[in-house]
Amino acid sequence: MKACPSCKETVQQCMEKHSFAFAHLYNDEKAMDMHIHDCYEIYYSICGGKQFLIDNCFYDIHEGDIFLINQFESHYLSQIDSQKHERIVMSINPDYLKELSSQSTDLTRCFHFRASDMPHRMHLTSEEQNRFLYYIHKLSSTNGFGEDIMDRAAFLELMVFLNRAFNARCKNAGGAHITSAEKDQAVISHNAQVDAILSYINTHMQDDLSLDELSSHFYLSSSYICRIFKAATGTTINKYITAKRITLSKSLLSQGYSVNDACEACGFNDYSNYLKAFTKAVGISPRKYAQYNS
């Protein structure tokens, strides 16, 4: 697999190919402004870089730090070393990773589980750093016959490795291995409810999706909905809805919809809120996005 030359191209390639892409970058590429993607992102610091901002939380960056970011979390590098900033950035299509998961192995967990003791960042040990770079080397070395299969195999090894490292830190933090059958059944029940909520949201983007409306539709309290949704997805329900509406808006604008029509079709009842949310997430206004992408 050939490494991409920029962050933007990794995002574009992973979504177009419905799989994943990565880049090995240095300080000669200008860092992106605050943004969200339609994909998961792995950011690994080899050296340089000073500070990362993820969902309004600042993280100092050290050599060997790895950040696991889901598609609803806004982020950007807020400070960068002037001398050198070397990193690996990987973009992953969420549907692709879900398809690769099994009932007993959820490869998306490291992107979504968010307890107070388990935020977005892990610091890899020296051995783990070498292992991570070994998998990246395997990906960058594949070519010729069977390249797609070898890429998939190396990627699977990498995701199992990262989730094992993540789970070990969860366990050490006291965080979250549910072992009793009773708790397992509760999780299954909660996940079924969240699946129903997600399905409803995704098919009613133009409608009122306030917490009160969802609470009334599902006969569940708003606080309960917020709690199970955050536990299952790693993000708040409002952030999810906004991210989905922005994604739909980008698609409509690329198809030639006017800004006002896209705003209405995506369920933004107030244009100023739409303008603010879109610009914050994408980095440019809807009108400029339509000009560049239609």
UniProtKB/TrEMBL annotation:
Record key words, sorted: DNA-binding, Transcription, Transcription regulation
UniProt cross-references to Pfam families, sorted A to Z: AraC_binding, HTH_18
Any one GO MF annotation of this record: DNA-binding transcription factor activity
Location of the HTH araC/xylS-type domain: 195-292
Gene3D superfamilies named in the record: Homeodomain-like, Jelly Rolls
Entry keyword Repeat: no
Identification of the protein by name: AraC family transcriptional regulator
